[in-house]
Design brief:
Elements: H1 4-7, H2 18-32, H3 45-59, H4 61-72, H5 84-99, H6 105-130, H7 137-158
Helix pairs in contact: 2-3, 3-4, 4-7, 5-7, 6-7
Amino acid sequence: MGNPFAFFGIEPALVIDEKALRRKYLDIQRGSHPDLQSHVDEPDADDSEKANEHYKTLMNRELRVKSYLMLKSNADIKDNQLPPAYLMEMMDLSDEIESMDRTEESQTQRVESELLEKESALEVEFEAIAAVPEPNIESLVLWYQKQKYLLRLRKNFEGIEEF
């Protein structure tokens, strides 16, 4: 996969300047576009493909955090480090989503409200972690794992099946 931060010449960070990243991305794409490079026999399509892949990674916060963790730590982000109480909460919420009657609006709204509350709390947690120059890696791994759980629950709530 490579280092998406290094590819674009930016410092690894949890929060990035997305407009500056977009400019760098477009510069690379212009530089490798065959119609815009008449003086080059064969533009480097590999750079364009890498730019696409790395741009998508950095523009998606979850993927950016994953890349950051891979660069900055030896932590195994797949090794579940979530507290048992949190896992029980998520299992309860998952059960509520699975068993809710989607035709009953009040039940759907209650479950969605609970999901939104958890997502908002996680957003506040991320902002606190990202606010410091050298984020605590353990806290970031926990946030990443919580985010993955909530994303799965959100997809389940929305009726999106994962393969």
